[in-house]
Amino acid sequence: MTDTNTENGTATVVLLGKTANTVERTAGATTTKGGLKYREREKWGNKFEFILACMAYAIGLGNVWRFPYLCYKNGGGAFFVPYFIFLLFGAIPILFLEVGIGQYYRSGGITVWRQIAPLFSGIGIGTVAISFILNVYYIVVLSWALLYFYSSFSAVLPWSTCGNWWNTDKCWGPTSNGTKPAQTVPSVTEFWENRVLQISPGIDHPDGLQPELAITLLIAWIVCFFCIFKGVKSTGKAVYVTAIFPYVVITALFIRGVTLPGASEGIAFYLTPRFEKILEAQVWMDAGTQIFFSYAIALGCMTALGSYNEFNNNFYHQLFFLTCMNSGTSFYAGFAIFSVLGYMAVEQGLKVEDVAEQGPGLAFIAYPRAVSTMPWSSFWAVMFFTMILMLGLGSQFVGVEGFVTAMVDLFPGYLRYGRRREWFIAGTCVVSYLIGLTMVTRGGMYVFQIFDFYGASGMCLLFYCFWEAFVIGWVYKADRFYDNIEAMIGIRIIPWFRWCWKWFTPAVTVATFTFYLVTHRALKYNKTYEYPAWGIALGWSLAMVSIVMLPISMAYVWWSTPNMPN
Q1: Is 424 left (phi over 0), alpha (psi -120 to 50) or beta?
Q2: What φ, ψ does residue 506 adopt, rounded to 5°?
Q3: How much is the pLDDT for 31?
Q4: CB of 331 within 8 A of CB of 500?
Q5: Per-residue pLDDT, 28
Q6: Which one of 15, 476, 486, 513 is most buried, counting C-beta atoms within 10 A?
Q7: How do strand 529-530 and strand 524-525 relate by DSSP bridges?
Q8: pLDDT score of 348
């Protein structure tokens, strides 16, 4: 049975039961209307492409540069206790929910919630808004990595020496003998801040574009465009490279790392459990936010990826595989990272905690510094930044595809005609690039940090994870969704998901969200630079852009729908 609404000249088809499979068979076909080709909805070339696309999106830079750091910081092996609790009660139920509704209704992140519960359609708008903000700033990391990648093709790595135009008289090279003297600055830090970022004193000093980063950012967006401009036909082929090749590089780095002197000290520091840490509230907060970031949920993209599946695709088993790969990659990457950090600590006579970093500090300071002391340092630098580029690019272009899918499904009567979809993708890339230019000025790092800390923060993700679980569990009804899943895959899934959608996941997300607000501290750069009041206000405005979408849409639907009490 289908229910078609042609209001405002658009057609929204609600697919119910087995009939959706009949409609699915025609997906990807084209018809001619008014001299323009109208494209029916596409689908993945095969089931493997869907799995790889999910891997490319969910398994990204956070698995490499954030999870290992959080693991050692929060009790080593003991960190896995809160990590797996949040995985079972939070991330997995939401992941299965998002892919399931996308596959059943064959709709993107906005329109699917209109069909499920119109009063809560703001969930889709809010999550897609987070996705857009994330896409704008995440790709800036690739612009940094491209410049490092280019610089790696040198006989002597440029960040390993002093005496360059960007160095100061306080420069100290990592290849120097002995412990770093006081009042000196490592050459790798000066390369990062003075050469790559050319960082200004603060956010109120943009000081013009860093032209090389503007170019590398443009290159990254051009590559992203060509990965997705043909829809899932091109996306499905690109993920074969971006999802698989990083494992080749991680394995090579792992083998090299564990053969270095000091590797065992680094790995021991990474894994040795300190169970007393479990009693600290911050450890649970770090585990919760890492899980929701790592699984790329509450962004609308997993719904979009699921919407290109065959109606009878067994996503249930596929997502269990994805879960193992995602968490397994985080764990595996830790060995590759900390074996090298252990080597660097031994070489410089330092403790592992003195050389360990997270986020950009790991990718652009700590690891490059370690690589510069290895034999064949240029080769290993090229390998490392190839991995960073592949992981980042996979997450980026699949994320943009998720945003584009949501908008095309919102305006199918216009964007599926002719080459309008391609032009829309091009426009999205251009607008995002222009916004991103604010992050490759000499004060751009401060802007980037505001986008990262507020725009796609754990607070925003937790807010929408709660509402997604609540709506499916109580408004749409978990039992009804169980029937939908059974109609697709032919089996009744375990009752665990029903309990999570109704009870456990809302409780976990509310508790973590509350703790996030209670423990919130004002953003600082390098723990010293304090943002001006207008910078903090800009950050909260970015956060609220997505959050207010839900109450605004609820108020609009309530007052505009006939027969609703006013």
Answers
A1: alpha
A2: -55, -40
A3: 59
A4: no
A5: 47
A6: 15
A7: antiparallel
A8: 76
Task: Give the count of beta carbons closer than 10 Å to the beta carbon of residue 527.
Answer: 6
What's the pLDDT score for residue 183?
Answer: 78
Q: What is the pLDDT of residue 5?
A: 37
Three-class SS string for 128-143? Answer: HHHHHHHHHHHHHHHH
Question: Rg of the chain's alpha carbons, rounded to an integer?
Answer: 24
The whole-angstrom separation of Cα 273 and Cα 414 is 56
Q: What was the pLDDT predicted at 179?
A: 58
- Burial class from Cβ neighbours inside 10 Å (0-12, 13-18, 19+) for residue 146 reads buried
Give me the torsion for CA of 85, 320, 385, 300, rounded to 10°.
-80
CB atoms within 10 A of CB 230: 16
pLDDT for position 283: 87
CA 313 – CA 318 distance, rounded (Å): 9
Helix (H, G, I), strand (E, B) or coil at 156: coil
Q: How far apart are CA 199 and CA 210, in angstroms?
A: 9
DSSP string, 291-329: HHHHTT-SSSHHHHHHHTS-TT--HHHHHHHHHHHHHHH
Could you tell me the two tokens for 216?
């590398």
Residues of the chain with pLDDT under 70: 1-38, 174-180, 357-359, 564-566
CA dist 261 and 274 (Å) reads 25
pLDDT on residue 7? 34
Q: Which two tokens stand for residue 540?
A: 């909260």
* Domains of the chain listed by start with CATH number: 2-560 (1.10.4160)
Query: Is the separation of the CB atoms in 557 and 119 below 8 Å?
Result: yes
User: According to the model, what pLDDT value does residue 293 have?
Assistant: 85
Helix, strand and coil in the chain, % to nearest 5: 70, 5, 25
Q: What is the pLDDT of residue 114?
A: 94
108 contacts: CB under 8 Å, gap ≥ 6: 102, 124, 128, 300, 303, 304, 307, 402, 405, 406, 407, 408, 409, 410
Q: If phi over 0 gives left and psi between -120 and 50 gives alpha, with beta otherwise, what is residue 207?
A: left
**pLDDT at res. 23:** 35
